[in-house]
Each structure stands twice: as C-alpha cells, then as structure tokens.
C-alpha cells in the first residue's frame, strides 16, 4: 500500500471509532428488552405518599395502591420488583438517568414531557388543601392572601398550582409531603396544597389535621399518569397502557385506590364523588 493509502486509512480510524461508539449507544437495550432480559422491573417509591405508597419503618416493606399496581404489572412481565426511594421532584431525573423503569403517580406537565414519556391517565382527580383550624377555604382566592403561608412539596404539581393560584401568599416548598404536614401541624404554615387522594390519606392517618378541602373557582382536576423513559421503542409503554385500560375498565384501579385509602382509615363513603378512578 502506498504512503498516501496508509495516511488515508489512518485518518479514517478515529471516524470509524466514532461510528462504532454511536452504534453502541444507539444499540442500548430498550426498557421492554431490559425488563424482560434482566427479569427486573425498577420503580420509584415515595415516602409519605399515601394512598400510593407507605413504608413500614420497622420492616422496610412497602404497601399502598401503587405497590399493588406494581406487583400486578410485574406479573404481566413475569419479573421481580426493585425499588428506588425517590420523590416526585426527583423521579423524572431517575428516569432520565436510567435508575428506574417507571414512576407512578406523575402529572404529565409539558416540562416533564420534554424529558420523559407518559402513559395514558391512571386516574384523574381534583386539587385542594389541608388548612389550619379556623381556616376553611372553599376557593383558591381564600388562600391567595399575603398574610397566609401556603406550603407544597417541591417539584410536584402542587407547587405549580400554588404558584399559579396563590401568588399573593407566602409560598414555601419542602422536599416531602411529611415535611409539609409537619409545617402545618407546628403552625409554620396556614395551608398545604395537595391532590385530593393524598389529602384524604393524610387526614385518615391523622384526623387532627383535617378536614380536607376541595378548592374551586377554578376546579383544578388533572390526570395522574405513569412516567416512563423516553425512547424510540414503544413496546413497553404499549403494554403498560393496555394494562391500565383493562384494570381501569374492570374497576380494579378504583379498588386498589380505595384499599390504599383504607390503610389510613379512610372509608369508601368518605371519598368525594368528584374523584374519578
């Protein structure tokens, strides 16, 4: 081979390496193939997020509506479950960094949809608040006052709702729902913005912080979905969507939600008719 041919061949080596690297990256296993291949479904779990999740501090075991869902979904793929303790705010990052395969109970905001994918709605339910004694809000305007401190868990849609509808109030964010409840109970907060299921569960667990108030004018009712990794292969999402459609249609989603609420002492007749499962 001539010197010119050798030089040309050498010049191609870095390019070939780049092509090989790109192929390796694009050849990463999809969620569908990874779950079935590894026989493991990795999910995010959230402390203090009843009725979705509850952790037994003595045993480390998890229960709740979404745990029941996760176990049933794992049966579809014939795999075991692995848990990563996270928060609503961090779950999107956990999906992006491939730490988990799915995250239950995420609201599909446009900002989140830039980074991750979502299933069809798991449930749809309205938003409201827990409030200090003597404060009985009926509308968002009842909390939109500078003398009131309104709290929320950071990175959740509770924060989005608080900032949009209570901009005049003193807004304070905490990492977890438990911290928000503590702020309310200790008198450091006047109201805690929560979706209805979470608020009902909190009252069932500790009736002294109730009642839970649904807020109107406007009624904020949003879907709660399952967050997934964004990827070209849609097979995993298609299976989860089919699983959701079947269990919602047969009423099983509602049963799991009611069972999750029952853990906290909320009876079926205490669930507002406005809640849709």
A few lines on this structure:
By secondary structure, this protein is α/β, with parallel strands linked by helices. It has 2 domains: 31-124 and 222-270, D-Maltodextrin-Binding Protein, domain 2 (3-Layer(aba) Sandwich), CATH 3.40.190.10; 127-221, 3-Layer(aba) Sandwich (D-Maltodextrin-Binding Protein, domain 2).
- What's the pLDDT, averaged over the residues? 88
How does the major sheet shape up?
8 strands, mixed
Assign the CATH topology of the largest domain: D-Maltodextrin-Binding Protein, domain 2
Multimer state: single chain
Strand-residue fraction?
15-25%
Number of strand segments: 12
**For the record, what CATH class of the largest domain applies?**
Alpha Beta
What's the number of structural domains? Answer: 2
Q: What is the end-to-end distance? A: 72 Å
Can you identify the CATH superfamily of the largest domain?
A: Periplasmic binding protein-like II
- The rough form would be described as globular
Structural class: alpha/beta
Number of helices: 10
Secondary-structure element series = HHEEEHEHEHEEEHEHEHEEHH
CATH architecture of the largest domain: 3-Layer(aba) Sandwich
Low-confidence stretches: 1-26
Integer-rounded radius of gyration? 23 Å
Q: Summarize the amount of helix as a percent range.
A: 40-55%
């Amino acid at each position: 081979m001539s010197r010119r041919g050798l030089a040309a061949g050498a010049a191609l080596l870095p390019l070939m390496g780049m092509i090989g690297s790109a192929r390796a990256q694009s050849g990463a296993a999809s969620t569908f193939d990874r779950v079935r291949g590894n026989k493991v479904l990795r999910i995010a779990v959230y402390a203090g997020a009843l009725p979705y999740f509850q952790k037994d501090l003595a045993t480390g075991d998890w229960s709740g509506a979404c745990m029941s869902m996760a176990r049933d979904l794992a049966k579809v793929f014939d795999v075991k479950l692995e848990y990563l303790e996270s928060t609503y705010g961090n779950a999107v990052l956990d999906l992006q960094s491939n730490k988990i395969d799915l995250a239950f109970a995420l609201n599909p905001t446009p900002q989140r949809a830039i980074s991750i994918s979502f299933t069809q709605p798991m449930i749809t339910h309205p938003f409201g608040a827990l409030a200090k004694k003597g404060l009985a809000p009926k509308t968002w305007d009842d909390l939109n006052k500078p003398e009131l401190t309104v709290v929320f868990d950071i990175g959740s849609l509770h924060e989005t709702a608080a900032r949009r509808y209570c901009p005049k109030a003193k807004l304070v964010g905490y990492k977890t729902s438990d911290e928000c409840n503590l702020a309310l109970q200790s008198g450091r907060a006047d109201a805690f913005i929560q979706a209805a299921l979470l608020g009902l569960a909190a009252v069932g667990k500790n009736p002294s912080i109730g009642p839970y108030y649904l807020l109107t004018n406007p009624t904020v009712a949003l879907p709660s979905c399952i967050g997934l990794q964004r990827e070209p292969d849609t097979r995993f999402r298609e299976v989860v969507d089919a699983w959701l459609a079947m269990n919602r249609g047969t009423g099983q989603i509602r049963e799991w939600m009611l069972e999750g609420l029952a853990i906290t002492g909320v009876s079926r007749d205490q669930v507002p008719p406005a809640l849709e499962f």
